[in-house]
Amino acid sequence: MELRDIEIFLTLAEELHFGRAAERLRVTPARVSQSIKKQERRIGASLFDRTTRTVQLTPLGEQLRRELSDSYRQIIAGIDAVTVVARGVSGVLTLGTMGAMARAISNVIDLFRRRYPGVDLRFREINPPDPLTPLRSGEVDIGVLWLPIRETDLTVGPVLRSSPVMIMVACAHPLAAQDSVTLEDLGDHAVIGPAGPIPAYVENSLVPFRTPSGRPIRRGPRVNTFQEVLTTVAAGHAVALTQAEAADYYRWPDIRYVPIRDAEPSSWALVWRTGAETPLVRAFARTAADASESTPANDQE
Questions:
Q1: Which of 16, 42, 241, 269 places its Cα 20 to 30 Å from the Cα of 209?
Q2: Cβ-based neighbours of 218, under 8 Å, separated by 6 or more
Q3: Which residues of the chain have pLDDT under 50?
Q4: What CATH number does residue 96 fall under?
Q5: pTM of the predicted structure, to 2 decimals
Q6: Pairing, β 119-125 against β 91-97
Q7: Gyration radius (Cα) of the chain, Å
């Protein structure tokens, strides 16, 4: 079985749709169908049950998927690694992260360093109120940002984590005594807002402008850095919404983190400037995808 046929099989096994698989592979649905039929003839049995509405793996197809997945990733990783060396691709790759996110995706970073020991991986802090400028200015090559990111000049890569959203309050705040709160509760309190040029849709995805019933959520002090968030909340001037990583890595004695039981989790993904995509950027994105597949997104630490 040729490597391209393995890629087609694994993509179809994931998508379970000939059109979507073809789109991902940048081939025609007929090419996908031809490859699968060739593999089935070689094996002597069906790998997929097909109807006019659904595509499902047969038990034999599921077994083949399990047998091939890890080996295929290892082969591709090996090819990428020697390609980087053969083409003389080396130098510096700068990763932009927020707060504790570099620690939270240590599995990705460790795997990348093992695969590409000759690459100098460096880190820059991205402040949440201004997540896109460092990418557009070239200060960072890849950023780890929460979604959605809908910018025509930026590429959104693999999703790395899914993080519960929590409210950060001073220990003396009335909400500190709650086991959990709701988004509706935010209408009664001033919430810290960003001082930078974050797109409104990105801000709203974490800190909504209105409660589910439509009440406005007041913005309190505007801040530039996460350190300012911590000190402002600790002083009791406002509350803040943040992802669960903050509760893991920024435990202050005068701050409490309370779950928001009806808030959608935040998804974190790699983002880079489309026009500045390099072999190193692609290598890091592939490494992140491999690491994320081997570790559930909400379990990575």
A1: 269
A2: 189, 190, 191
A3: 297-301
A4: 3.40.190.10
A5: 0.69
A6: parallel
A7: 23
